[in-house]
Each structure stands twice: as structure tokens, then as C-alpha cells.
Amino acid sequence: MEHLLENAKVLANTENFEQKVNSREFELEITKIASSYKVDKELKEFLINQIDNNYRENKKLSFVLFFILFTICRRQNFGNILELTKEYENMFNDYEITKHINLMAVLVKGTDSSTIYKTIKSATRLVACKNEICDFTVHTGILNAYTELICKYFEYQLDEKSEPENIEILQNGLVCINKAIEIDAKEKGSKELVYSKFYLNRGRLLILLEKYAKGEADIIKAIELLPPSADRESKVSEYNQYLVKSSIIHAYDLNETKVEDLDRIKVSNYKSIALMTTLLGFLLGTINIFTTINDKFTLLCLMLGYCGLLLVLVGTILLGFSLNFKEHKKRLYVYDVLLILIGASIFIGTMIFINWGR
Question: Which residues contact 218 (CB under 8 A, 6 or more apart)?
Fold first, then answer.
């Protein structure tokens, strides 16, 4: 434990600490220290005591110890890291990287959908944060965590992913993870050395954006990039689960498309019924008018005029159907408009003829 404390002091004494603490390199140093220890109740209590005891005299050291404790608990799934981050959030909120820690806590332990969505919205601003002490637009850890949280939310809220605001979130996530892969490949000198989880999360996101083949290809690549380790087989199983989930999401999207098509058919049918009802009402009303007229000349002209109106109505109905066809044919439009014009001409002509005859 004393060795851990010494390593933490070295990081706390880093030159330009306020800037370095917000970098991906600093996070990797924290991860390196955290991976050397197995967490238990005794280690957690030791770190909590050191955090509290050093807070007033050496806040930098206190924060480094908190970051180490959080990383150990997160990686080894020990305790409730959401409660841990809430407990120390106010103490260290002047460090911008604390927002990333909160994001990671929600990513790992968050279960409430509204909390996850709110975190995504606030993280959208986080990944765009760039100022004198931090540049999170190139922090691959933050870019990846943001993308992964988006995937976590929308994989269980599939009915929300097609909303315009959420499509924008998904596309922003894709921009972020593409940037993370690009930066990681450049730093390591090859795309074959990129952190496998970056490809995994891009694959998950592409599937949510209905680019299934590209998404599945990325997941397969992520499996290939997994380095040899004791837990490699478990990670392969985990990654393969997302290929299964891809089939489920694809089936859901196909079903949603069919439902939308059926809804459109229903609407078209309702319109057709309404139009036919209007036509029937028009004809019945016309019959009632004709029964009240005794003059044969006037009756003949009115019948001709109403035939013209009937042509206008039929032409309007057919034009409405033509506009609903998937394959819009100009010839159909011309016929329908021509029918309307002929009907209108007959009606106007007969009305003029009746007035002239009188």
C-alpha cells in the first residue's frame, strides 16, 4: 500500500498538473497503477483515509488517490462506484476530468434510463470541450466512453433511436469513435494495434444506425484485435453477443418498417373510404335535386352539368391515388388533370347555356 501511495505522489507532482490530469496519458498512468492491485475492503479503506487526510494539504494527491480508487473499483467491479463518485464529486469538481469519471460510473453501473440519457446529453458537451487546460475532443478514453454509453442506452430503447434528436446523437457518437480510432492508430502506428473496444463500439453504433454489415465487420475485427490474455475467451464470448444482438436489432427494424407500411396503407384506405363516401353523398344529393325539377330542358342541362362535376370529382380522386403510388408516372397525372379540366368545362358550359336559354 505504501508503494501505491508513492506512485500516487509521483503523479501528483507532475509538472503542469492541472493540464496533464485531463489527458488520456494521465488516465493510462492511473490505469497502470490500478491494475497492479487487487481490491479488498482493507485497500479501499486505506485509500479513502488517504484521500480525506490529504485533501486540505495536498488536494492533487488526494484527487490522484481518488482516481486510482475509482479505477480499481471500476475494473474489478467492487462496490458501488456511482455512490463513490457522488461522495467526492463536490470535492473535485474543479478538475474537468471528474466529468469523465462520472460518465464512466454511469456507463458501468447506471441502470435508470432517464439518468443514462441525461448523462449522454451532458457528455455531448463534454466531448466538445476544448480550452486552455483540457482538450477532450482528442481524449480517446472520453470519446469511447461517450460512444459506449450511447450504445448501451439505445440498444435497450430501440423505439427512440429513429427520433431526429436521437439520430443526431448517434451520428455524433459515430464521429467521436471514428476520431478515437484515427488518433489511436496514429499514435500506435497501425490500425491493427488500435484498442479492440474502439472497433467494438463503432460496430454497435453502426448497427443502431442500420448499417448492419459494416457494424458486424467492425465487431469481428474487434475480436481479431483482442490480445492474448487469461480472459480473452470471456471477452470473445462477450463480443459475440453483440453479433447476436445485431440480428435482433435488424429484425426489430424490419418489423418497424412493415408496421409503418401498414399504417400508410390504413391511412390510404381511410382516405379512399372518405372520398367514396363524399362521391356517394354527392350522387344522392343530385338525385334529390333532380326530382324537384319539372322543366325537361333545364333538367337535361343540369344532368349534363352534374356529369361534368362528377368527372371533376372522379378526376380529383384518381389524382389523389396517383400521388400515393410509389412509382409516380407523369402520364397518370396528365390523364387525371385532363379529366378534371373536361369535367369543369362541361359544368361551366352547361351553366352558361342554362342562363342563356332563360
Answer: 199, 200, 202, 203, 206
For residue 135, the cross-strand partners are: 130
Contact 196, 184 (CB under 8 A): no
CA 135 vs. chain centroid, Å, equals 24
H helices, E strands: number in the chain:
15, 0
Could you tell me where the beta strands, DSSP code E, fall in the chain? none
Q: Which pTM does this prediction carry? A: 0.71
Q: At what angle do helices 97-109 and 140-154 cross, to 10 degrees?
A: 30
C-alpha cell at 181: 480510432
* Helix-helix angle 81-88:97-109, to 10 degrees: 160
Closest among 106, 113, 182, 112 to 148, alpha carbons compared: 106
Contact yes or no for 64/12 (Cβ under 8 A): yes
CB 100 within 8 A of CB 141: yes
C-alpha cell at 32: 497502470
Q: Tell me: the pLDDT tens digits for 173-213? A: 999 999 999 999 999 998 889 999 999 999 999 999 999 99
